[in-house]
């Protein structure tokens, strides 16, 4: 399994891929542009654990 994380100024996106490169789960959480570092880290943690195998996006695409 592989995890990709995008920490942006307006949100956190995470994707979980299996060994074949297929999307297992993905999740996006919006953050405030001026959020503190701890708020962004908390959003990242929630994003990574939120994947439930169904994902937010179509297979093969990140959020």
TrEMBL record:
Q: Which InterPro entries match?
A: ATPase_NBD, FGGY_N
| Domain Carbohydrate kinase FGGY N-terminal as annotated: residue spans | 1-32
EC assignment: the record states: 2.7.1.17
* Entries under Pfam families matching the protein: FGGY_N
Q: GO terms for molecular function, please?
A: D-xylulokinase activity
For the protein in the UniProt heading, the enzyme class is: transferase
Keywords for the protein's UniProt record, in alphabetical order: Kinase, Transferase
Spell out the protein name for this chain. Xylulose kinase
């Amino acid at each position: 399994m592989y995890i990709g994380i995008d920490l942006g100024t307006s949100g956190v996106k995470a994707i979980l891929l299996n060994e074949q490169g297929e999307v297992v789960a993905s999740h996006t959480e919006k953050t405030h542009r001026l959020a503190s570092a701890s708020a962004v880290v908390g959003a990242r943690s929630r994003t990574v654990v939120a994947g439930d195998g169904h994902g937010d996006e179509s297979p093969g695409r990140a959020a």
